Amino acid sequence: MRLMLLALLCLAACAQQPVAPPAGRASAQVLEASAPSDWRRLDPEDTIYLELASGRVVIELAPAFAPLHAQNIKALAREQYFDGLVILRSQDNYVVQWGDPAEDEKKARPIRSAKSSLPPEFAREATPDLPFSVLADGDVYAPEAGHSTGFPAARGNGKAWLAHCYGMLGVSRGNTADSGSGAGLYVVIGHSPRHLDRNITLAGRVVKGMELLSALPRGTGALGFYENPEQHVKVRALRVAADLPASQRTELELLRTDTATWTEYVDSRRWRREEWFLDKVGHVELCNVPLPVREKK
Amino acid sequence: MRLMLLALLCLAACAQQPVAPPAGRASAQVLEASAPSDWRRLDPEDTIYLELASGRVVIELAPAFAPLHAQNIKALAREQYFDGLVILRSQDNYVVQWGDPAEDEKKARPIRSAKSSLPPEFAREATPDLPFSVLADGDVYAPEAGHSTGFPAARGNGKAWLAHCYGMLGVSRGNTADSGSGAGLYVVIGHSPRHLDRNITLAGRVVKGMELLSALPRGTGALGFYENPEQHVKVRALRVAADLPASQRTELELLRTDTATWTEYVDSRRWRREEWFLDKVGHVELCNVPLPVREKK
Questions:
Q1: Which of A39, A40, A38, A30 is nearest to A264 (CA)?
Q2: CA-to-CA distance for A246 and B10, rounded, in angstroms?
Q3: Is A271 exposed, middle or buried (0-12, 13-18, 19+ CB in 10 A)?
Q4: Strand pairing class (B159-162; B124-125)
Q5: Residue-wise pLDDT tens digits, A71-82
Q6: pTM value?
Q7: How confident is residue A110, by pLDDT bands cut at 50, 70 and 90?
Q8: Which residues lie closer than 8 Å to B201 by C-beta, 6 or more apart?
Q9: Touching B: A residues 165-194, CB under 8 Å
Q10: How far apart are CA B218 and CA A214, in angstroms?
Q11: With contacts defined as CB-CB under 8 Å, which chain B residues touch A2?
Q12: Would you call A283 and B8 a contact, using CB atoms and an 8 Å cutoff?
């Protein structure tokens, strides 16, 4: 049944000769023509800064999908839990991960006011109030893919969840669902590992500074862990943007994902109207829709 | 019509509650149980080495899909065209590219015996003799996705083409289809840019040494070009493996993609039977099937 439907789908939907796209603009022109109201400011209360010697990684938290984890990551940041901890792992085509390098639990940094374990937030109810811009192109992993509250997401059977696209922030866990707290965090640096969706809590996404993580040397141990502690990259601090004076914040704007401009932008990623594209494509996959970010105007 | 079919597909095919996978083995066990005949040796005549100060990147060419380009890249290598040229570009979540840094055509390195332009090899005829292991999970970009002659590929309307998965080697071109020759080459280092499929010739794929490319500092110029020539990473040499003494070759074996073991391996990537996976997934997307590579036994 499933294979038959797939074949039917593709015979009907997948044009295989280069075809002319419907009239429209290319991505750069869509963004140029956007109105100020098509953009939103990062909320400093939902923004964290991972401060490395090489610079600042700006991460937007996703309280609409992971409210408990977003809150706990901020609580950890506010007790300065992460300061002086390290990037432990860089696995090629997968993730960079930071946290406490102590192998002996007795030497592990104590968590003071934050929680040390949380219920999983792998998916949430797809309630009517949750905005969701559906991607018409389908998805291999979920009944529906699209964007919600600025994040790549998926939906099905009454649930909605964030998708493991490039740059997403996740919460490390052990073998049990409630074994993550936010004390260990990872960022996707390779081809989007969508098989992790609904297996682990995603709590946000890098909006600036990805290259400070993605270009780190890969660890040579199993799973990309650094074998020698000297290879660890120190986390100078992890801070909630709201806790910094305004002058020290990184002011960014992100394209809203619930507007007509967003729909046009997605279409411009589906139909590649730039001269270079000889085949204008006509399809776009969820993680190939990068979220436009710009300096505050 | 298209949207209706997508909805139908997903209602029927996308299980949204964690379900138990059919009986089977996890990836590690599939590989452990494999027979020697499930593996193939790299053919030294179809293997090139990109030699950097940091080490060797081993690349398998794909003559079944890009015979003219594979041949010409070897011809360029054999006239030592690449030796002393540089990695010019590292664009985050996209590609690393190498070639001639000369901006003035008069100063460009001459191509001697190799061809300086070639007809495009964006797709080939899907002839009956071309092996193709279809992935039952569908694909956003093509009627069929799967693996052919060891490479991720797609198929439709009588054509077959390589897919822009992580690690694939492509041939830079200008705005015209025949403007590539292999004198400029790129490797995918981010989320697979499948919108490039059938727009540019893919000619192979990195099988070892990806981290020597993917962890390079990102260029700060437009499209990730290095703005300062001092940032260029020198290409010591690019060689055809067959031209080196056997003792200097990197001997690798790759899992064949046309066997029952391959089918079982793909299934083990679709159904994640490892204990850690609380949701066993049940789907796998083309570029999330990594090709197993091992040292020669």
A1: A30
A2: 46
A3: buried
A4: antiparallel
A5: 999 999 999 999
A6: 0.94
A7: very high
A8: B66, B69, B118, B120, B121, B122, B170, B171, B173, B180
A9: 165-167, 175, 177, 190-194
A10: 9
A11: 12-13, 136
A12: no
